[in-house]
Amino acid sequence: MGEKPVVLVTGAGRGIGRGIAISCAEAGFDVAGVDILYDPANKDSGLFELQRKVEEQKVSFLPVQGDISALHDHERILKEILDFYGKVDVLVNNAGIAPEKRRDVLTTTADSFDRVISVNTRGTFFLTQRVAVQMIEHSKKGCLKNPCIIFISSISAEVSSPSRAEYCISKAALSQAAKIFADRLTEFAINVYELRPGIIQTDMTAPVKEKYDKLIKEGLVPQRRWGFPEDVGKAVVALAGGFFSYSTGLVLEISGGMNIRHL
Ligand SMILES: NC(=O)c1ccc[n+]([C@@H]2O[C@H](COP(=O)([O-])OP(=O)(O)OC[C@H]3O[C@@H](n4cnc5c(N)ncnc54)[C@H](O)[C@@H]3O)[C@@H](O)[C@H]2O)c1
User: Fold this and answer.
1) Which of 15, 51, 111, 214 has its CB 3.0 to 4.6 Å from that of 202, i.e. a possible disulfide?
2) Is residue 185 part of a domain?
3) pLDDT at position 2, please?
4) 35 ligand 1 Cβ < 6 A
5) Which whole-number Å values give the CA distances from 184 to 35, 92, 162, 232, 248, in the listed order?
6) Rg for the chain (alpha carbons), in Å?
């Protein structure tokens, strides 16, 4: 087992997950990045571009291919990481998807509903369960540093978007999952946090970039700018660094002030 704390980031191949992995590397974490997209021949994007970037910080990176919605594969994913690092100190549940097509709540399809829930909620829930059991074992032996689990939900856990109900529902359910794991894991001194990003510039939001450029300019976001993956990455480091050790179950918005209700 290495000296450095190990962070497991799901959906690390791009966007917010990539930003979290880089921020954690800068803070001295060894990183395991899991992503469904895995192309060792391509060193210029995805997990293998990230590997170069992370290793510049003199920490280690393990790229792991994995689809978190495939529950039967969770054992293999975790085994690869434990074989390499021996432990996981911090789990960041970041992998998530949006509906392929935005549809009004009156026409949402069951296929889209099941697809979004299977990744954002079901896959994340059961991966957390498996990793938590492992963390408990290691924590009891005193092997972990500030063990914690961080859920990347969304402001959509709370905010209604009638054109992507299944996404909002998946994140609201994830928010409850975070609360329940927080409650259950206090006994083992494993803190659980929920981060709710607002409007973050990534591939996920690329199709609606123009729409949000305009809305942000008009004041939808009080801080009047897009969020960036590093905004979420820095918050993860603050939590994973143990600075909020007396605050399990904490819910934090990273949304440029969209949490402020104003007249
Ligand atoms: N971008 C935003 O504005 C925003 C806002 C709030 C919350 N979020 C949440 O943040 C997380 C990351 O979003 P993003 O904008 O970086 O998205 P993104 O689509 O740019 O990146 C998501 C990454 O997750 C991977 N992934 C998707 N399904 C997977 C699966 N089944 N198993 C493993 N990996 C998988 C993708 O390959 C990709 O690398 C998501 O959970 C999203 O819901 C995003």
Assistant:
1) 15
2) yes
3) 79
4) yes
5) 27, 18, 33, 25, 11
6) 18
Distance 108 CA to ligand 1 centre (A): 21
CATH number of the domain that residue 166 is part of: 3.40.50.720
Minimal-distance CA residue to ligand 1 atom 23: 11
pTM above the 0.90 mark?
yes
- On whether residue 111 sits in a domain, the answer given is yes
Q: What is the pLDDT of residue 14?
A: 98
Tell whether ligand 1 has an atom less than 6 A from the beta carbon of residue 200: yes
* CA–centroid distance, residue 227 to ligand 1 (Å): 14
Structural domain for 26, as ranges: 6-254
Q: Which residues are known catalytic residues?
A: 167
Does residue 261 lie in a domain region?
no
The amino acid at residue 85 is Y
Q: What beta strand segments (E) does the chain contain?
A: 6-10, 30-35, 61-65, 90-93, 148-152, 191-197, 251-254
User: Which atom of ligand 1 is closest in space to residue 167's alpha carbon?
Assistant: 43
For residue 259, is it within any domain?
no
- How many structural domains does the chain have? 1
pLDDT per 10-residue tile (average), the chain, 263 residues: 93 98 98 97 96 98 98 98 98 98 98 98 99 97 94 98 98 98 98 98 96 96 98 98 96 98 87
